[in-house]
Amino acid sequence: MAEGGTGRARAHSHPAPVDARPLADAAAPFRSFWMGGFEGADHINGLGVPLDMVRGNGHLAQLDDDYRRLARIGLRTVRESIGWRLAERSGAPPRQRFDFSRALRMADAAARHGVQILWTLMHYGRPDDVDVYEPGFVDRMGEYAAAAARALRGSSAEPAVYTPINEISFYAWAVADTELFHPYRRESERRRKPGEPPGRVGVMVKRHLVQASLRAIAAIRAEDPGARILHVEPIVRQVAPQHALELSARAEEADTHQWQSWDMHAGRLMPELGGHPDTLDLLGVNYYHDGQWEIETGARLQWHLRDPRRLPFESLLQSAWKRYRRPLVVTETSHVGVGRAQWIDEASAAVERARRMGVPVHGICLYPVVDRPDWSNDQHWHRSGVWDVDPPESPTPLRRRLNLGFAKSIRRAQRRLPAAPIAARAMPHLLVLSHWPWNLPRQRAHHLLARLAEHYQVVWIDPPAHAAVPPCVQRGSPCTGVELLRPLTPVEAPGWADAQLPVLRDLLARYVATHAVAEPIVWVTTPLALPLVDALRPRTLIYDAIDVAALAQGEPMQRHEAALLARADLVFAGPGRHVEVAPTRPDAVALPNGVDAASWRGGSRAVHDSGALDAIEQRIGRPRLGFAGLVDERIDLDLVAALADADPSRHVVMVGPITKAAPAALPRRPNLHWLGAQPDDVLAALVDGWDVCLLPFEQGVGARRGEPIEALEFAAAGKPIVATNAVATLGNAVATCTDRDAFIATCRALLAEAPAARERRNAALDDAVRHHAWDDVAQRAQAAIEAQLARLPGSPSQPDLSSLGPPRAAAVDTTSIDTDRR
């Protein structure tokens, strides 16, 4: 159908939603929060083959069936492409120049099934006589946009939503630096003038595309003043390679290029183009697994390998929101093959967290909702849709087949979103200045902060590391909801030394300003970090008094701690510290260690790399006596060696990173195995195979710790435990031996322990473990934080703190171990 006579208004009835839950946020211009996108690229590919993806996967022939399928699973908003190359007839008379019959067919079919369409005008394709490098491109885009808006005006009950040009940043890069789009062949190499910097050609293309988009927006609004504009761009992350950290500053700069298109539209960049903030209406971000990479090498930060340098999706969304303060939509996201279900589980959870952080994300579009062939190889189908598609040459050509795993994940996500509302105010930032780097496993703070990330925007700041690079901060995400900052400085002094402080103040102040961190909660675990607190301008300062070893450094450190105790608004006293800090801070909240019992019970966790576990266990005989934790100055290496020497048929297994002991100083025996750090799943499986667990600390060191995390973990695993220092939380359920010979004898006795005695001991350990769950400890910490915040000026109420006294000690059976404890 030609353009003439297509501007008729229409009234449509819309079928009821699939269930009673709200399908969309009330303030959003979308019929449903969950959306589906149909691949609509219509360009000529690098091989010179014209593409029509809407026809290629059978969508054009199955419009009614496809929309009916989407509506049934609650996807009542879809993204469709009109296709400029397909809609404009070059050289035709003016009234026959544009043919929007395909788009109108889509609009009619969508109306029959209660589906709203979000239109893309240019999905990479363009008429043959239009060149993105030529000035005429802008005028032609404006004429096309006006004709499309005129033709589609009134075709939906909601205001029309248009994306003038899909992914300007990607398209500019592809035209300038690849051979994806005919007839362009790495135009950066051909068109760059001598002496011009790399990237100039890409910026020139981006400039032309933005000019054309601005012209299209003006034309659309002239024809349909109520229309909404949805700008769509990939959201990405770039980092320096691990072997070239000196490129960190350059990576940060490259990372900002993703915002250039929107900055041009807003008039912040190249204002001569005519950009204005009013042209930024709705912002769409496309998010895929390969959207984070190293500069120079191009190596991807692999999602499936959990590369810790990846930033969480919610952090990327928050960056876009803080920069532009415009409503957001996830306009494309999916994965391939069997990874689809897990991908959408995690992406939707990230969106839910972003909404709790106050980021207004109003929709998620599954793209492609129906599978599609590759642009350059129509025999290769990506298997990335909610529906897979039988190949055209099969007995059932282009038949849709629902991917059940993906569909179940979508249904789970629909139960949470959009039911969980956008927070009226952002979750507070919680910045942690830690005495240990995050990559040392199984720290107390790991367990607490990972759980508190449900309620706060947690940013963990490692001690600075020396690197021969300009000062910079590496960012990553070690676990859900936690952002990790690793300062790199040219200062050689270790940790939070005084020489590091001026550089760190500048780095942290820059981070706080760049990421709009206002009045954070600051949590410090070392007194040495106190001089940095003022640069963070905290709303509340928390001191987590846990670092016992640091206080052994003498009077200067004790003086630092006294200053921190006086300054802190809230003090948490870790195991063994409550008695020490109480005289100065009687209001200190005792915060014990905990355990995630389910992770340590035998057979409860599948091992990701069973081959690695088998390789370890094949070289270790039985019986096995083991320790799992940090191998540092606490460990009595002489005792470990004596235990191995006492009986060569017994195997002593030591698992954990070596932090403050020289590897050369470790005793070596055929039956003494130093395994280093192991993944959590392998570690739990190793402990499950031990006959006795060891706490071989130097005398007095473990006593000050009161309740080492390792003790609770071994107890949760149901293992006999022999310790050199008493474990307060487990009482006599742990065999305490202060004498080396008694320690060795007790290990021998426990290997021959009678079943009845073992049952009594396990009952006592189970009772202790039940009263020391990390979830409970984290709730205790959160209650104390919220009580402190409530006391601040302007807070509505002050919660009752009476429940935050010292935790109830678990009852333990003092007769559960039948051994000599001389």
TrEMBL record:
It holds the Pfam family Glyco_trans_1_4. GO terms for molecular function: transferase activity. SUPFAM superfamilies: (Trans)glycosidases, UDP-Glycosyltransferase/glycogen phosphorylase. Keywords: Transferase. Residues 813-822 have a biased composition (Polar residues). The keyword Transferase applies. It comes from the Bacteria. InterPro entries: GH. Residues 788-822 are annotated as: Disordered. This is Glycosyltransferase. The lineage of its organism: Bacteria, Pseudomonadati, Pseudomonadota, Betaproteobacteria, Burkholderiales.
